[in-house]
Design brief:
about 700 residues, 18 strands, globular
Length: about 700
């Protein structure tokens, strides 16, 4: 730290450091409503008395994210009283102020010609007064717009991932002393923890080297507002995450007063933790005396001086284990009451002796933590009625706890290391999803957790809307990128997109059939009907398996039949989600009906044989519905034949002749069937089963 000359003020930067003022805390309580403002005014008066160059606040200037009008008015009154005067400012800001101060004016407040600022105030935001809403504004922005506070350390995190931040220092020069002031406003501890462990996610900008001032000549200060407790490593920031070039760190958010700078082994910098100026948690850590720190910097050396706050309400804390007290009977409640009353009275007397130096008597805060393992409890409200007008918190003097068996065997954890009141009984969405082993399919867990936090703690009614809109924009951007990438790719035919090996194993198509397949498949693919194409190929296999491998008329007749088959199967695909077997049978029936409409000259007898064989092998005689017509009633084969003739189909004679030709061709082709492969036979066996299923479904 070195020795600094008290007389050389022209080269010494004097800074008063304080954190966690929590202005507006307990403003509705008649006894404690003025505590935060009295401590804040004392801090400003100390800065005026010590003639500091500026005041540095480490976050949580306000207790509420949206402070009341009373809180804002009182805060502005105090700042105007101590900050606006004709005293000259002895230092200069030589960095790019438009980057340091993210507001409309873009410069430090004492350079405004319309204001006489004699005491500059620099502050970051904490977790209580962090930016929120559509415009990402904080309550500190109100003070900045009033030109009373220089608000810095405001980071903009983009994206739903870890994100990236860059810290630009405020470069301050006074004589031969150069100070680089870095500010990092509160970020969710889990996210900042991941950012520090992600390469290049947190970038630190260093001052440029000049002839008069090298990079090593700057005294680097960092002020941040994060968890420091090591109970959960992922929910806190480790000191070793910070860069080694830093010299002095002001750590906010922790309310326990550890104002004396402590050196971090192996890192080379010192950390001061001034704590809160008002007791918001009645625990052992906050019962210690409150202080602020005066830091005098000259060159690369500094000297700390801690200054106690006298206006803070006295706070006495004690823990009592009933089973360790010998004068208490577990079965006698009066003995328990007498012992606790004696403890409270002794604490009140101790606070009176400490507060004797103040001219005005202040009601103290008393907290007794009682371990009642093996004893009966007492009503705290009824117990505190006796101390109304004697203590500031009569309703919660006693707090009962029961040590668990696991806690009794382990080392005892300090109250300062436990959760603060604002963190009690809270669980984020990430933990709930992890416990339930759920998987979010629409919104990311981190974004939804942050939106819920903003909606509850910050009263941001547009939090969920903003979260939804942001994810919608990201999704649309990704869809556009994918569509552009698909348009840039060359066009691929259906033959390349669908495997051909399973289809070729059934039958072998001719060259004309391959061309027709590619043409029809391309049209269906352009319409996005992959299911239609599969149905078409399956029906094509079934129909081809019943036909001979040779014939000129078959190729001409099939060109029209294939188009009609694709249309019919596509209509069926729209109407229902039938299985592939049902769709195949419907396609075969449609193909048979279309072939019956063709002339006898253009269709060969083997074609009739294949279709009629399928009809004869069906177990039920259900009429197949044709597109745009009503289905006839299933009243036997004769009825079905008559209906077909009336609809402009073939007559009964032509039907009977076709049956005779089928029988004759069946006898002639017995030798050919022996030479064929086994695959067509398997296909013919599966056709009646497909027809039966289709008929059962229609009934």
């Amino acid at each position: 730290m070195g020795d600094l000359s008290r007389e050389d003020h022209s080269n010494t930067v004097r800074v008063l450091v304080a954190t966690d003022c929590h202005l507006g805390y307990m403003e509705k309580d008649e006894v404690r409503r003025h505590d935060s403002f009295q401590a804040f005014e004392e801090i400003c008066s100390i800065a005026e008395q010590k003639k500091v160059d500026f005041v540095l606040f480490g976050g949580d200037l306000f207790h509420e994210n949206k402070p009341s009008r009373t809180t804002l008015v009182k805060t502005i009154e105090i700042l105007r009283r101590y900050c606006l005067n004709d005293k000259p400012v002895q230092f200069q800001v030589v960095s790019d102020q438009t980057i340091n101060f993210a507001n409309v004016f873009g410069h430090v407040n004492y350079e405004d010609p319309h204001f006489n600022v004699g005491l500059p105030v620099f502050s970051i935001h904490g977790n209580h007064d962090d930016p929120a809403g559509v415009d990402n504004l904080s309550a500190v922005d109100i003070l900045s717009a009033c030109n009373l506070v220089n608000y810095f350390g405001k980071m903009v995190l983009g994206g739903s991932g870890v994100g990236q931040i860059t810290l630009y220092p405020i470069l301050i020069k006074k004589g031969s002393t150069s100070v680089a002031l870095y500010g990092l406003g509160n970020i969710r501890d889990e996210r900042l923890n991941r950012m520090f462990q992600t390469p290049h996610a947190v970038q630190w900008m260093r001052p440029e080297a000049q002839e008069s001032c090298q990079v090593s000549d700057w005294f680097n200060i960092l002020v941040l507002h994060q968890n420091r407790v090591k109970t959960n490593p992922k929910n806190a920031i480790n000191e070793h995450f910070l860069p080694r070039f830093l010299d002095f760190i002001v750590w906010g958010h922790e309310h326990e007063c550890l104002v004396d700078p402590q050196e971090v082994p192996g890192m080379g910098f010192h950390i001061t933790q001034p704590g809160s100026s008002v007791a918001t948690s009645l625990i052992d850590g906050e019962s210690k005396p409150k202080h602020v720190l005066l830091v005098e910097i000259k060159g690369n050396q500094y000297r700390p001086t801690k200054i106690p706050l006298l206006s803070v309400r006295p706070f006495e804390y004690k823990e009592v284990v009933l089973k360790d007290e010998s004068d208490i009977d577990p079965n006698d409640q009066n003995s328990i009451l007498e012992h606790l009353h004696s403890v409270v009275k002794s604490l009140i007397e101790n606070s009176g002796r400490k507060d004797a130096r103040n001219s005005e008597t202040t009601l103290p805060l008393i907290r007794v933590k009682v371990d009642y393992s093996g004893f009966m409890t007492i009503n705290p409200q009824k117990f505190g009625q006796k101390y109304v007008g004697k203590v500031a918190n009569p309703q919660d003097i006693l707090i009962f706890s029961k040590a668990s068996k696991k806690a009794q065997g382990e080392a005892k954890i300090k109250d300062s290391d436990r959760l603060r009141p604002e963190e009690l009984n809270q669980q984020n969405i990430e933990a709930l999803v992890a416990e339930s082993q759920l998987k979010m399919e629409i919104l990311p867990v981190n974004d939804l957790d942050e939106a819920l936090h903003n909606f509850i703690n910050k009263d941001d009614k547009m939090a969920f809307y903003s979260c939804l809109q942001y994810n919608l924009e990201e999704t649309r951007a990704r869809v556009k990128e994918r569509s552009k990438s698909k348009e840039d790719e060359p066009f691929t035919s259906v033959e390349n997109s669908i495997p051909k090996a399973p289809m070729r194993s059934a039958v072998s198509f001719s060259d004309d059939e391959d061309d027709t397949t590619q043409f029809s498949g391309s049209k269906s693919t352009a319409r996005g009907k992959k299911g239609t194409l599969d149905q078409f190929k399956l029906s094509r296999d079934v129909s081809q398996s019943t036909k001979p491998s040779r014939g000129r008329g078959r190729g001409r007749g099939n060109k029209g039949s294939l188009k009609q088959t694709t249309l019919d199967t596509s209509m069926m695909f729209r109407r229902s989600d039938r299985s592939a077997t049902v769709a195949a049978s419907a396609s075969v029936q449609s193909l048979a009906v279309d072939e019956e409409n063709l002339d006898s000259d253009s269709s060969d007898e083997p074609v009739k044989f294949g279709v009629n064989e399928l009809r004869d092998t069906s177990d039920d005689d259900t009429g197949i519905q044709v597109k745009g017509r009503k289905r006839g009633a299933p009243r036997g084969r004769g009825r079905g034949s008559t209906t077909t003739a009336k609809r402009g189909r073939k007559s009964d004679n032509s039907t009977s002749s076709s049956i005779q030709q089928r029988m004759m061709s069946h006898d002639d082709d017995d030798d050919d069937d022996d030479d064929d492969d086994d695959v067509p036979k398997k296909t013919n066996k599966s056709q009646p089963r497909a027809t039966r299923n289709y008929g059962a479904l229609r009934r």
